[in-house]
Design goal:
Layout: H1 5-18, H2 20-35, H3 42-56, H4 63-71, H5 76-82, H6 86-92, E1 93-96, E2 101-104, H7 106-116, H8 126-137, H9 154-167, H10 174-192, H11 200-206
Antiparallel strand pairs: 1-2
Length: 216
């Protein structure tokens, strides 16, 4: 697969038109995370967790437990600011008393860290997992993408993400690349579910870049 510079720029230019609701949600989250950059005050963390969970459907059923857990993560703010990969693991693994077990909220944790430091934490979600898995079947990566176990290692996930960026000669801009991939794949998903009105713009995006190669 080869993402052309024109495809890349066209998709980024069109994403607000294609997905206006999601663009607005991202703006709200960006503003809230900027206003409350620290993670030691429970009320502020609850607000961020609740909004992120609601907008991105991250599957958090007990917001207070997750937020409390984040405030107790060792040196959490300094580690997020520095881009410490291990903080994703520590935020993700939450013990829920109601279930009497730890739950790995991996996708949520990558999003939570990304909204604090978008240039240091690429986002993991089901679209990216499927995208990389399909590419891996075609021996795109140096090693097989472990779709079923990748949630156990954010370091490994970043390795594949960086390899993808390098192979496609994309800017080393996690937020921009994530927006490009997510827009392309989300538009394709909405069209498959007949939830996207056909338009010239959406057709152009669907005919370009990842949608020519990756089928969800």
């Amino acid at each position: 697969m080869q993402i052309t510079k024109q495809d890349y720029q066209d998709t980024l230019s069109a994403w607000k038109t294609l997905l206006p609701d999601y663009a607005l949600q991202e703006t709200v989250l960006k503003d809230v995370f900027k206003q409350y950059p620290n993670n030691t005050t429970l009320a502020e963390v609850i607000l961020k967790v609740n909004l992120l969970n609601a907008f991105y459907s991250t599957g958090i059923l007990d917001v207070v437990t997750v937020a409390t857990h984040i405030t107790n993560v060792n040196n959490v703010d300094a580690r997020i600011q520095s881009g410490d990969d291990t903080v994703v693991r520590d935020i993700a693994n939450v013990f829920h008393k109601s279930k009497n077990k730890a739950v790995n909220h991996f996708s949520f944790a990558t999003k939570y860290c990304s909204f604090h430091q978008p240039q240091k934490f690429p986002i993991f979600d089901s679209f990216i997992a499927e995208c990389f898995s399909q590419l891996s079947k075609n021996k795109y990566f140096q090693k097989k993408f472990p779709k079923n176990t990748i949630r156990n290692s954010y370091f490994d996930f970043k390795f594949f993400y960086d390899e993808f960026i390098n192979k496609e000669a994309l800017p080393k801009d996690y937020k921009e690349v994530d927006r490009y991939l997510w827009t392309s794949l989300k538009v394709q998903d909405l069209k498959n579910k007949k939830k996207l009105q056909p338009s010239y713009v959406s057709s152009q995006v669907l005919n370009n870049a990842v949608n020519n190669t990756i089928k969800l």
